[in-house]
Amino acid sequence: MDGSARYQDSEDQEYRGDLSLNRIILYKTDYNKFMHRLDHDKLENLEAHIFKGAGTPGAPVGLPFSSPIPGKNPDGTAITAGQSIIGAAAVYYTDHGPGDDYSVTRSEWNSRIVFNIPQIPELKLGFDHRMEKRTGCVQSRTMSKCSACHIEAYSKDINELTNDFIPKLSLRLEALVIDYSYMHREFDDSGDKMYNNYNKLASAHVAPFGPKLQFDGTYGALPFDRTPESTKDSHSLKLRYDIDKKNTVMAGAVYSVSTNRGTDSSYNALLGNYGKDLDLKSGSLFAKIHSRITKKLSLTAQVRYQTLNNDNVFINVNDQRQIDAFKNEPFSTYDFTRKSGYDLNLYTGGVDLTYKLSCTIAIMGGYEYRREERENNKEHNVPHDTDEHIFRLAGDWQLNNGPRFNLGYKLMLANDVYALYKAVCAPSGQFATYAGPATDNWNYYRTYAPNIYDARTGTRSNMPNRLHEIGLKAGWSPIQILFTNLYAKYRIGNNNEVDGRDWHQNLFTGGLNLVLAPNEKMAFSAGYNYFYDKYESMYCIAVYDG
Predict the structure, then answer these.
(1) Which of 42, 46, 151, 148 is nearest to 89 (CA)?
(2) Strand partners for 472
(3) Of 153, 176, 301, 363, whose CB has the highest number of CB atoms within 10 Å?
């Protein structure tokens, strides 16, 4: 038996224990608990006004309101309190828990048991269990739109429980080792179910330009900030075969299904109910070979295939007006099927070489190819596939009884990196313009979508298609009780496939760490870390009038 314990207070404790019964039954367990204190956002920066105009001569610009107007009327009556002499709020907030403190306490209990059968020494049976709890209170926020931007904050009780059950077995047949495990995960949330009565929509300035938002105060209390209860089932199979002392082959497969258990109520897209549980399926296959060709040269090659498939859902849009009310309108319905952006196929393959010049100097080089295919790219305005080529070169050098250095370089070249095709206005300077209400109010081409959103034709990305990275690591122990570690990394990235100005990144990080251990029970550590990251990009800034 063996064990240890640490108790700081009721919200900070840690325990560990091991038990062996003639090596036939091996049991290990550990438990830890810690409270994370969270901020309380007072939202006081979310307050701005629009003034009525000539009716308020001399009114100071930006004067905040002191009374909660325009109010949100729970009884459903029209919101008119905002038409004050000073002005109506364009952005305002309500904190429903102004004096509350927020924190989450997380605890985790792991247990692992292994059965060694004396009559079958090649076989091992095991069972793992993990239980994670999250309890406490957090700040939950939501916002009404298209009247005033009304931000509201509530205090939400957290009570989440995750259980993992993992039976497994391992079979060793001379040079062949087979490992199999099955995991069943259950996530339950018995915390607060959050609801909010949103503001009513503001009336349009000119008919028939009516409000088109999917929800407002007309529909009563609506849910927000939900964490759906879920399950996950996963199968994992791994194989290892030692051909001889110099060559080893490994292979494996993983298949899992994650199920959202909070969507099977009667269909109501506004409430997140689709009449069925929604599944995310994933699978992967991999193979790897390691060969020690000579005493100085070794090779590792590997390939991997991964696939993700997420359920599609039908969205029955809550139409706010009659379809075909406008001339030239291109839509017969606003209903659509949401096809997931998680439907992916990923391919990876690579080879690494290591050559030892001496017992203290080694050179490593490698190449890796990655390909990502997105099945529903047209629905999300992103590239169908991305190809990456990654080259690595590194050296490892240790002086006799002195410091050890590692210097590495990486080059990444990519085609069609992840990007949004309709992200910004045309970089040529043809900015979007809004025709506004005019005599031909019923013409679709005078509405917002074709004049504003369709003007966004430029492609942008925050991913590089060319990347250079240099890294340095050094470690030294000048005396037995002192260890020093130095590291630095510089990265420069660029993307010239985007429209407009190229995307650029410059990143540097570095640091020095010292550890002094006078004896086995005492250690002192000190360190300095520096981080610098700079991006250069383009954004589409939307300016709204009205």
Answers:
(1) 148
(2) 407, 488
(3) 153
Identify each DSSP E strand in 293-442 by its residue range: 297-310, 313-315, 336-338, 344-356, 361-374, 385-398, 404-415, 420-425
Residue 403 CA to its chain's centroid (Å): 39
- Total Cβ atoms within 10 A of residue 186: 14
Sign, CA dihedral 257-262-266-270, equals negative
Classify the phi-psi angles of 275: left when phi > 0, otherwise alpha if psi is within -120 to 50, otherwise beta. Answer: left
pTM here?
0.82
Closest listed residue to residue 181, CA positions, set 119, 219, 242, 130: 130
- The conformation of residue 327, written as its DSSP 8-state character, comes to B
Distances (CA, A) of 197 to 156, 174, 213, 221, 379: 16, 67, 15, 5, 32
Closest CA to 427 of 499, 347, 515, 343: 499
d(Cα 490, Cα 469) in Å, to the nearest integer?
Answer: 6
Q: What confidence score (pLDDT) does residue 72 get? A: 42
pLDDT reported for residue 328: 78
* Structure tokens that stand for 294 in this block: 């000579």
Query: How far is 53 from 147, CA to CA, in rounded Å?
Result: 19
How far apart, in whole angstroms, are the C-alpha atoms of residue 425 and residue 279? 37
Q: How far is CA 384 from the centre of its chain?
A: 21
State the pLDDT at residue 440.
Answer: 64
What was the pLDDT predicted at 51? 46
Nearest Cα residue to 226 out of 267, 196, 186: 196
Confidence at residue 74, expressed as pLDDT on a 0 to 100 scale:
38
Q: How far is CA 248 from CA 124, 178, 354, 393, 454, in A?
A: 22, 14, 16, 24, 56
Cβ proximity of 41 and 61 under 8 Å: no
Residue 323: per-residue pLDDT: 62
The 10 Å CB-count burial string (b at 16+, else e) for 280-307 is: bbbebebbbbeeeeeeeebeeebbbebb
Q: Which amino acid is at 342?
A: Y
SS (H, E, C) 253-314: EEEEEEEECCCCCCCEHHHCECCCCEEEEEEEEEEEEEEECCCCEEEEEEEEEEEEEECCEE
β partners of residue 186 = 163, 231
- Give pLDDT < 70 ranges for the chain: 49-89, 146-148, 202-213, 319-325, 427-442, 448, 541-546
Nearest residue to 140 via CA among 95, 92, 188: 95
Cβ-in-10-Å burial (0-12, 13-18, 19+) of 206 comes to: exposed
| Residue 13 · residue 6 · CB < 8 Å | yes
Q: Which H or E run contains 88? A: strand 88-95
- How far is Cα 233 from Cα 165, in angstroms, rounded to an integer? 10
Instruction: Calculate the alpha carbon distances from 493 to 361, 419, 430, 508, 510 in Å.
Output: 30, 15, 29, 12, 18
* Alpha carbon of residue 269 to chain centroid: 24
Q: Residue 435: its pLDDT value, please?
A: 54
